[in-house]
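Workshop exercise sheet. Pairs work together: one partner reads the sequence aloud, the other fills in the structure field after running the prediction. Swap roles for the next sheet.
Pair: D.N. / O.F.
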Amino acid sequence: MTERPAQRTPNRQLAALIAEAGFSNAGLARRVDQLGLEHGLDLRYDKTSVTRWLRGQQPRGTTPALIAEVFTRRLGRRLSAQDLGLDACAPVYAGLEFAGSPEEAVDIVGGLWRKDSGSHAELRKIAFTPAGLVVPSRDWLIGRADEKVARAEVPVRIPAQGRPSTPGLALPLDPSRRRTPAERGPGQKVSGGDLAALRSVGELFRSLDDRYGGGHARQALVRYLEHELEPMLRGTYGEQTGRRLFAAAADLTRLAGWTSYDIAAHGLAQRYFVQALRLSQAAADRAYGSYVLVTMSRQAVYLGHGREAVQLARVAQQGVGTSAPPVVQTLLHAAEARAHGVLGEVRACTAALVRAERAMEAARPGDEVPHWARFFDEAQLADEFGHCHRDLQQFRAAAQHAERSLQLRAPVYARSRLFCRVVLATARLGLGELDQACQLAAEAAGQAAEMRSVRAAEYVRDFERRLEPYRDAAPVRGYRDKVAALG
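Structure field:
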């Protein structure tokens, strides 16, 4: 690690906290390295590094935040890099932490919204880190709903030098942000109309995402979160309204993550999902938390991290037990099946699919189903089966289920239909039906060209890679001509 030139002033704040924590220099260095591993960072600090920090040198990058987190865990109180006499920074994994309180959760997610709304390109380039899935999912599983989320009228805190008032690993605020008189300001009372508006906004952006891809309206959603939702979270509300408000915040934050995932901003999406998980805890909505974990599992599947995806799906199941409605249980088991499928684990995948099917059969008309789970119907279950059988190279079964899903799926789910069409094309290719495969894929490629969805384009590219052994065949040449004409 390259560090800045030593300063002349010894770091007495750090020395005092080392003494309070009972660390040796080597022990502190070891804990910083271990915490770095949790976030996918390979650090090589030792006792000499700590001696340099004590003499006044400033570690770079993410290290000040890591050191602060080590002391926070040891001493049981939140400490910032500044509390340790270190230069604070916006670490590359900021947003992966599971906040200790609703207030801190608002500070962290608000920082994400502001930085993302400001079109900071580097935020969308942050890498996905599998290690960053462990702590939030564990903390959600063993955690309980916050005892209190209500907010009375309090003076608005103005963060110093553009930093959040809650210390720790939260992202910096945007000091240039100024509200106009027409905008909601922090401290105002949240009404039932506000909550209804949040639900309507969620449905609107979900519909846009389904039809046109996450890239079309993602930035508009993030700006809405910054300008409208954050002031509500910093407003005044009672317990019941507060729980509903945090539930809406969890849902919209998950949607921001979902649209980020769709444009391949995977590190940013991961952070949104973690914060949505924490907000669901403040909402006392265990079932929604399980849905967020399923979303995280799906991203892990897409990125090829099957083992982590299985673990996330199982944590979700364990977290809700048998209390969730049958449709939610179906969703949870289907997510586990997808993860086993990408790992090629036939028996485990088949067993999870059977559990999903049985759960769906247990659903009855009139069952109370959360609004966020209503998309999971027979068409979606057939889609899950199709994907799993494709991954297991069971192409005849994959084709049957994909065809059924396309027959049942409503046109408004345009991107999902595109994915399923590519699954069907892949199955037809696996069955040796090259003409049909290329025709289906050409239709999907035409749809992908009309969307702003990296995932849609990647589905098509994955099929094209499978076409490579047949590149000289007439149907493949015809397919390429059609795709080339799309521009």
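Discussion prompt: The CA atoms of residues 260 and 269 lie 5 Å apart. What would you look at next?
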